[in-house]
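Z., the sequence and structure:
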Amino acid sequence: MEMRYYFPFSFESNFAQAWTAWYNPGGNPRTEKEEPPEATKRQMALYDQIRVTPDEAKQVELVKQIMEIAADQFYAMGLALPPNSYGIVKNNMKNVPATMYFTGGPWLNPAATNPQQYFFQ
C-alpha cells in the first residue's frame, strides 16, 4: 500500500517534508526537521508497528487506524489530473486499446494496457 499519501513518512510524501525529516533523521540534510502534531506522531508509531508485525490481520487493523487518522487530518487533496491527451498508432499496429487510462506513479502509460500484447500485422 502506498502510505505516502496518508501520512508523511518518506521523502516521497508530497507534503510535510519537515515532519518527514523528523521521522527519518539524517534522511534528507536539505530539509529542516519539525516535530509533527500528535495525530501524525501516532500514525508514525502505528506504521512502525506494521513494519514489525508478521500477523496480516493485525497489519490490516493498524493500517485502518492510520487511515482513520488521515481522514480526520485530511493532509492531501488530489485535485489535479493530467489533461486529456492523444496518441498516434500506426495502422498496422494491432491490439492497442482505443483509450489509454491514466496510471500515475510507478506504473505509467501504456503499462496498464499490456503493451507486450501489441503486435504488427
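Residues 81-121 form one domain. The mean pLDDT is 87.

Let me know what you think.
H.
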